[in-house]
Amino acid sequence: MQRRFGGVAPDGIWGTKSKTALREYLHSLMPRPNPWPSTDEASLWAFYGKPGDEAQLINIDVVDFGMKQNGHVVTRVRVHHKCAESLLEILRELKTVRPDILEKFNGVYNYRSVHSGNTWSLHARGAAIDLDYEDNGNFAPWPTNASMPLEVMEVFSRYGWLCSAAEWGRDAMHFQATSF
Asked: How many percent of the chain have pLDDT more than 90?
């Protein structure tokens, strides 16, 4: 995997150079300009509005994607209207590339703060999705203790979504419609 990102001598150690190379690789896949706001609160408020504003959310039909949550079939997902079409395109591609990951859906809209409690989660705006929590928990570093497939991260990146595994080195289940 280190060879794939370029500029990193494969040594089997997932260190700072490997993490930087992954982040740069995924950023290189993103559209220019990126359609999503920066992660600072002012940009998020300007683009998405107030966290928990359910008037900004729409239901998208996901019945054809084979999505499951805790073994139950998921037929619709609530998402911010500005990223609904993008998420549908991502799900269509994932259905082809890695349909198994869609069977491990863990949610989009959830009115809550981030785990540290200081700011709002992108889930509170319906602009983030979690997949395969069991194998990619919040504090598990990727790729040493988390197993989110690189193909999944590449799909999200091509649509401009940030992958937490690459940005923060953990929380590999989390993808959000924001730019770097």
From this structure: 77
